[in-house]
């Protein structure tokens, strides 16, 4: 994910930063902060996400999907490492890492991270009314991450 931020977002952002327009720079910095926060949030929890590469048997993928989606109303963070360890092959089992601090609901944790950043990006895009494509992009991006 770091490659996405560096290769795509920052590379493309250089063109915006070179305009040296305060409203453009403010919008880009708000966008970059939001993208980096999402990447960090996901990266911190990557070890706790189901890891199916498509190379395993399809029955194993189906049972893993059913197990993690049995109660979609409960997005509490964490879970038993024993259940995932029993289905993983010994070669692919990574060393246990400490879980990120959790307040319980993964959705609430994500919202706490991104809501202020989305508000900053929304405010920055409103200053760019002469660029309706940027405003529309911002609105759609915020809608997707919320």
Brief write-up:
By secondary structure, this protein is mostly helical. The protein has six helices and no strands.
User: What is the structural class?
Assistant: mainly alpha
Largest sheet: none
Overall mean pLDDT stands at: 74
How far apart the termini lie comes to 19 Å
Helix content: 55-70%
User: What are the segments in which pLDDT stays under 50 over at least 5 consecutive residues?
Assistant: 77-99
Strand residues, percent:
under 5%
In DSSP terms (H or I, runs of 4 or more residues), the helix count works out at: 6
Oligomeric form:
single chain
Shape: elongated
Please compute the radius of gyration using only Cα atoms.
19 Å
Helix-strand pattern, N to C?
HHHHHH
Number of strands: 0
Notes on the structure:
There is one protein chain. With 146 residues, the chain is an all-alpha fold. It has a domain at 1-50 and 101-146. It is built from six helices and no strands. It has helices at 2-18, 22-44, 58-68, 81-87, 106-126, 132-145. α1 (2-18) runs antiparallel to α2 and α5 (106-126) runs antiparallel to α6 (132-145). The protein starts with a helix and ends with a helix.
Which features characterize this protein?
6 helices; elongated; mainly alpha; 146 residues; 64% helix
Strand-helix topology:
Elements (H helix, E strand, L loop, with lengths): L1 H17 L3 H23 L13 H11 L12 H7 L18 H21 L5 H14 L1
Helix pairs in contact: 1-2, 2-5, 5-6
């Amino acid at each position: 994910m770091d490659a996405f931020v560096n290769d795509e977002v920052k590379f493309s952002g250089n063109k915006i930063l070179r305009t040296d327009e305060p409203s453009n720079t403010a919008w880009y910095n708000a966008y970059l902060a939001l993208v980096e926060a999402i990447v960090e949030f996901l990266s911190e929890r990557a070890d706790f996400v189901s890891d199916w590469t498509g190379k395993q048997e399809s029955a194993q993928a189906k049972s893993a999907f059913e197990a993690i989606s049995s109660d979609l109303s409960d997005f509490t963070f964490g879970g038993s490492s024993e259940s995932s360890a029993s289905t993983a092959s010994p070669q692919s089992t990574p060393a246990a890492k400490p879980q990120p601090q959790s307040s319980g609901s993964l959705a609430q944790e994500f919202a706490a991270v991104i809501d202020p950043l989305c508000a900053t990006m929304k405010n920055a895009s409103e200053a760019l009314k002469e660029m309706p494509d940027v405003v529309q992009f911002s609105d759609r991006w915020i809608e997707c991450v919320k």
